Description:
Blueprint: H1 10-31, H2 35-49, E1 58-62, H3 69-76, E2 81-86, H4 89-99, E3 105-109, E4 121-127, H5 136-146, E5 147-158, H6 162-174, H7 187-195, E6 199-207, H8 228-241, H9 245-248, E7 253-260
Amino acid sequence: MSINLNNLSEEKLEELRLHDEVIAKKYDGIRERNKFSRYYQDYWLNKILDNLEKEPRKALDYCCGTASLYPVLKSRFPQTEYIGIDISREMIKVGRHNYGSNKNFILRQQDAENLDLENDFEAVIARGAFHHLPDPTRGVEQIYKILEPGGLLIISEPVSTVLHKLIRKIVYRLTSHFSATHKSFYFSELKNLLNNNGFEIIKAERFGLLAFPFGFPDIFPFVKYFPFFILKPLVKIDDLLAKIPLVKNLSWSIIITARKIN
């Protein structure tokens, strides 16, 4: 299924152009080939999947990008039917090239704010999705529509303090990686986004401190100069720091698990 570009707003067209012309190549050529980045991204995805209560029969990778969730999901839940959607044709192209020969693997080019899917998903994983959407509320409404009663939505999003907002604003100006719709959220905003649209939050976990920037060599090119053996211990240090109440609130991201209210 392809997308009718005439039906997309200028904001979505900008996001689509950015992902097709710039980001897909950087993900495939840099982020997913750097040794520490690949390790860190898989660690992050496993943290997300830890929140699944059982092996889902059918799971949606919402704004799937290059489908990097797929091999991690299949290593833990081999019987799960994986469906990924993304607005970017080039992201989908990379995902199909990497994993298209596998069983129970489906990718569809769709607008995340206007899903055309069956309403029988037991789980939806949305890592780094909502901060790309012009209307995150519309996105949550679409996910609610396709989830089974009691189904789980697990999201991971940039979460901010005033300091984070300032740092991100500087980074946005220094790189071509971000569109005008790109955003981060205060935790209270994410809570309201879910609670006001049919979901009950059952767990929230801060993620990413010292190691976090080194997981993005496509955004921070200096990362490639740091050897893996130096960076890997940062992940364990972050796990320890995340247990300290005041320190964990400085995390760059958050993982939230929510259940669809019947």
